[in-house]
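Chains adopt folds. We examine one example:
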Amino acid sequence: MDDIHVRKTERFRFAFVFLVVLCSMILTVSLFGSSARAVTSSDAPPAICVDSPTDNATQNGDFAISGWAVSKAGISRVDFYYDNFTWLGSTSNMYVRGDVNSIINASGVYSDALHSGFSYTVSKSTLSVGTHTIYIAAISRDGSVEWAVRTVVIGPASQMCIDSPTNGQTT
């Protein structure tokens, strides 16, 4: 494996571990409320969380990639790629996520965490049948980037079979 692939693999492994730790922090905050330690401005890392699709989910048509992202500078857009970083698209339409703002941004260190939600629809015609890796990049207003990765399985197209009447048969 060449150096670029090794670095990408290490970066994605770090991002995965970070997301696991972050999701654990969210669970802790939601279970224990105000007894959990608040994040301060000096230790508030940018974060991205993909709500859907779940990892290894099978998709048989158009599907949405949705979740939330926060950073101290605020999120300017979220970019989407697949497989070998082939461009899917981008959205700067961040929508209201009161749950994220109240849990993740309780101490107010993230800029505009209320508008942290994102969603992007992938057309069923974009990806071929099989397994694909989706890369999601949250681009902060200060230029920093946080990555999330999902694997999706694109199923075969739906098929329809008419049993009756048979070809040429009249009823």
About this structure: The helical segments are 3-32, 98-104. The radius of gyration is 20 Å. The first strand starts at residue 47 and ends at 52. The chain has two helices and eight strands.
